[in-house]
Amino acid sequence: MKHSPVLASATFVACSLYTFGASAWGPIGHQTIAFIAEDNLTPAATAQVRRLLGPDLGLADVANWADDVRVSLRPETANWHFIQIADRATVTRAEESKFCKGSDCVVDQINADISVLKNPSSTTAQRFEALKFLVHFVGDVHQPLHCANDDDRGGNEKILVFPKPGSHGKPIKMKLHAFWDHLLEQHTTDDPKDLALSLGESITADQKKKWKTGTAADWAWESYTIAHDVIYVGFQAGPTPAAGVPVPKDYESPKMREIVDGQLQKAGLRLAQTLNAIFAT
Known about the structure:
The chain has 281 residues and is mainly alpha-helical. It is built from twelve helices and five strands. The protein is globular, with a radius of gyration of 19 Å. The termini are far apart. 42% of the residues are buried.
């Protein structure tokens, strides 16, 4: 078992999660990233995005398209949303690519979408699809549990159990991956545009300069490190028993929300920087 736990209040976490609706890294998280990106596009990039999407759509309107189509319409894209870097193995940044066999992962797909958008021979339809995928995948690569695997499918086989507020101890069961997703929302009425404005305004000049750099592989490694150093701390490797395990006693929701906010800010800035570079001419 790992040590150096992350701090916590399981009661606070349980109460907070019980008020949440959807998995926030889905519609709210991806749209928030898109709005942050739009606020940081150059005029040239803004014009090209509008040309591809048309006058009635913005990046936020297409930010969840990749999730909408992956199950029934485009099942071949399912693996494009993540890269499973082994949490318990001794892995270096130089070895990251071995976890993306056949380019079937989020890192290589981000690079593929960039190539399509840069290629003057790409059709408008190809560029339109590549843009929709790119907006979503830049968000996914910043979700730490999309980039790490503790022999649990990115937290989907670790089940957490905690008391349901007001139920006299009746437990809630939730996958660790969903638990992390839900830490984004404070209320079910969170508005992604307002959240993007708030998060955007809190980014410092130094953070903006630092965070806009890197490649998709760099971003995936950064997310993996967060999962390895923070999210998986206190857990045994592999799936939990079907009955679940208690939320680690030192797991503190505010700290995790801080990390989530930072990942959203980075993703928005990096998506903008990527699009600015693609549409520089």
